[in-house]
Amino acid sequence: MRLKTNHLERTSARIALFAGALLLSASACAFDLVDTAGKHHRLADYKGKWVVLNYWATWCVPCIQEIPEISAFHKEHADVVVLGVAVDAEDVAKTRQFAAKVGLDYPLVISDDSIEKQLGAVKALPTTRIYDPAGRIVYDKPGRVDRKFLEATTRRQPISKT
Fold first, then answer.
1. Both ends of the chain: CA-CA distance in Å?
2. pLDDT value, residue 129
3. Are residues 102 and 68 in contact, defined by beta-carbon separation less than 8 angstroms?
4. What are residue 98's DSSP bridge partners?
5. DSSP the chain
6. Using an 8 Å Cβ cutoff, are 81 and 41 in contact?
7. Which pLDDT score, from 0 to 100, does residue 89 have?
8. What angle do CA 86, 61, 87 make, to 5 degrees?
9. Residue 91 dihedral angles phi and psi, to the nearest 5°
10. For residue 33, what pLDDT is reported?
11. What is the pLDDT along the chain (162 residues), one digit of tens a residue?
């Protein structure tokens, strides 16, 4: 009888671990960010829309080079949510001014510990994370992106839930 009990305990522990991992992965996708204009951006509010998060820094040359491409994409695709996440902003006013100077015309979020806790840390800059209309991450990689890549990625047909 003890053998069955140990097996049941291990099975229960595995189920609990799996359920915890599912909860963690579900909550890792959810976010509630506030941009420099004070507007909230919640992933749940964007259900049915593509969402593009682009992580950048003022000292990152490839980041600065891709901002005009992302801005052009943003202007042409009002149905896609685009957010910039500045990871090195100690002076918010200077970062906003710099962002405007380089052509960033989409909402800007200043990263801090609470933002990193919600989104997780990035390993390199620039990094772009793209969520499909169901709120699932479909792209999360470092490296430059351009308008054509963003158009191709966000025009994929979402997987239907039937």
1. 44
2. 98
3. yes
4. none
5. -HHHHHHHHHHHHHHHHHHHHHHHHHHHH--EEE-TTS-EEEGGGGTTS-EEEEEE-TT-HHHHHHHHHHHHHHHH-TTSEEEEEESS-SSHHHHHHHHHHTT--S-EEE--HHHHHHH---SSSSEEEEE-TTS-EEEEEES---HHHHHHHHTSPPPP--
6. yes
7. 81
8. 15
9. -115, 100
10. 97
11. 544 545 445 544 444 444 333 333 443 468 999 999 999 999 999 999 999 999 999 999 999 999 999 999 999 999 999 999 999 888 999 999 999 999 999 999 999 999 999 999 899 999 999 999 999 999 999 999 999 999 999 997 544 444
For the question of whether the overall pTM of this predicted structure is more than 0.85, the answer is no
Which residues, 6 or more positions from 117, have their beta carbon under 8 angstroms from its beta carbon?
Answer: none
Contact in structure between 137 and 129 (CB atoms under 8 Å): yes
Q: At what angle do helices 147-154 and 61-76 cross, to 10 degrees?
A: 50
Compute the half-sphere exposure of residue 50: CA atoms within 13 Å on the CB side of its CA.
Answer: 23
